[in-house]
């Protein structure tokens, strides 16, 4: 038995490393076939020794029994929406408002990132283990989709390194375009509903009452923010209790990535309106080459003290704005 327990622990560690390389670094060390072989060995060992199959084992990603309904979750920290901008002048006006709000003539640093066309979710980790997941809902209250989220391989079940007692991660669940097209081919084969776009397919996959269906959908996840952070773990940067161990938006994203949470690599710090527009132009050029749909880019003031100083208007922050691409003509199927 001890041999089996030792091998199970080795396999868990190895599979977690390969998951991280694939989903976080987008730089896998082994082929899918080699990964599947390791996974099959772990499944076999856990079936031979059921007491070794704990809830955070990657073999538990296949989904449990269907729910009759979703529970409701109240977000301790509201999930924000973003104000939209369409023209360059809107972005110059946004940057001006930010500089006025910060009473500075200096150029302000922003984090620029892609606006992924998926479904916003909140992941709650307690002592580094995924405890609960919820949809954005109306920003205050969402649906409890924990069972479904646990089947998403791109979302780690446990975090590595010193973590706060409570860490809520906000991000977007999405389907890559190729996976969306394969899913629709399969749906046609089985006479099931065909999805009109990857966003609807991701939403439909997450709002399944049967997690075993969700488990068959190759959903991806990229974090863009955080919600509640409570308590500090030994070894975390000398963070004051309940203060996150970072003081910029860019630092926050890097910290989440270090914990093993996927963060989209197409992000950069830019200074002033001109560099924001340069990022927008760059993304407009590379957009069709991206493996997923985006509907714009997002700019956020980088310093967190400046974000706090600018605050919010109703539910949308003054420190952030989405710069949308012109809506495409309805794509002809
Ligand atoms: C505050 C906020 C709200 C929604 C967001 C949505 C996205 C997105 N869809 O990628 C990215 C962000 O940075 C967001 N940030």
Q: What descriptive keywords fit this protein?
A:
alpha+beta; five-stranded mixed sheet; 13 strands; 333 residues; 35% helix; four-stranded antiparallel sheet; binds 8-hydroxy-2-methylquinoline-6-carboxamide
Q: Can you put this structure into words, describing what you see?
A:
This protein is an alpha+beta fold. It has helices at 2-23, 32-48, 88-101, 146-149, 177-189, 198-206, 211-214, 249-258, 272-286, 304-310, and strands spanning 72-74, 84-85, 109-116, 119-126, 129-135, 141-143, 166-174, 220-230, 268-271, 294-301, 312-313, 316-317, 320-324. A 5-stranded mixed β-sheet has the order 2-13-10-3-9. The termini are far apart. 33% of the residues are buried. It binds 8-hydroxy-2-methylquinoline-6-carboxamide. The site of 8-hydroxy-2-methylquinoline-6-carboxamide has 11 residues, from strand 3 and strand 8.
As a whole number of angstroms, the C-alpha radius of gyration is 21 Å
Largest sheet: 5 strands, mixed
Helix fraction, binned, reads 25-40%
Distance between the termini: 56 Å
* Low-confidence sequence ranges: none
Number of β-strand runs? 13
| Count of helical regions | 10
Query: What is the approximate shape?
Result: globular
Would you tell me the overall average pLDDT?
92
> What's the arrangement of strands in the largest beta sheet?
2-13-10-3-9
Order of helices and strands: HHEEHEEEEHEHHHEHEHEHEEE
């Amino acid at each position: 038995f001890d041999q089996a327990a030792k091998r199970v622990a080795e396999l868990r560690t190895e599979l977690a490393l390969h998951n991280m390389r694939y989903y976080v670094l987008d730089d896998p060390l082994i082929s899918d076939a080699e990964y599947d072989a390791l996974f099959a060995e772990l499944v076999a060992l856990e079936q031979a020794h059921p007491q070794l199959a704990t809830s955070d084992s990657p073999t538990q990603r296949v989904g449990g029994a269907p729910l009759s309904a979703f529970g409701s979750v109240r977000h301790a920290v509201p999930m924000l929406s973003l104000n939209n901008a369409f023209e360059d002048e809107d972005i110059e006006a946004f940057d001006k408002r930010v500089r006025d709000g910060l009473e500075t003539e200096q150029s302000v640093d922003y984090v620029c990132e892609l606006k992924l066309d998926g479904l916003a979710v909140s992941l709650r980790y307690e002592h580094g283990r995924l405890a609960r997941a919820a949809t954005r809902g109306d920003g205050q209250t969402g649906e409890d989709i924990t069972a479904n989220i646990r089947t998403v391989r791109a979302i780690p079940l446990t975090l590595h390194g010193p973590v706060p007692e409570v860490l809520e991660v906000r991000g977007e669940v999405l389907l890559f375009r190729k996976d969306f097209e394969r899913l629709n081919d399969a749906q046609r084969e089985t006479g099931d509903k065909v999805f009109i776009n990857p966003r609807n397919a991701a939403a439909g996959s997450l709002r399944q009452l049967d997690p075993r269906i969700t488990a068959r959908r190759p959903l991806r996840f990229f974090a863009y923010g955080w919600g509640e952070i409570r308590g500090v773990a030994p070894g975390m940067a000398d963070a004051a209790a309940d203060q996150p161990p970072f003081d910029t938006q860019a630092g926050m994203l890097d910290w989440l990535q270090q914990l093993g949470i996927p963060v989209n690599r197409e992000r950069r710090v830019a200074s002033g309106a001109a560099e924001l527009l340069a990022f927008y132009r760059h993304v407009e050029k590379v957009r069709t080459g991206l493996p997923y749909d985006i509907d714009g880019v997002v700019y956020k003031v980088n310093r967190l003290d400046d974000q706090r100083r600018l605050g919010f208007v109703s539910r949308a922050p003054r420190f952030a704005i989405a710069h949308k691409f012109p809506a495409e003509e309805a794509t002809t199927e």
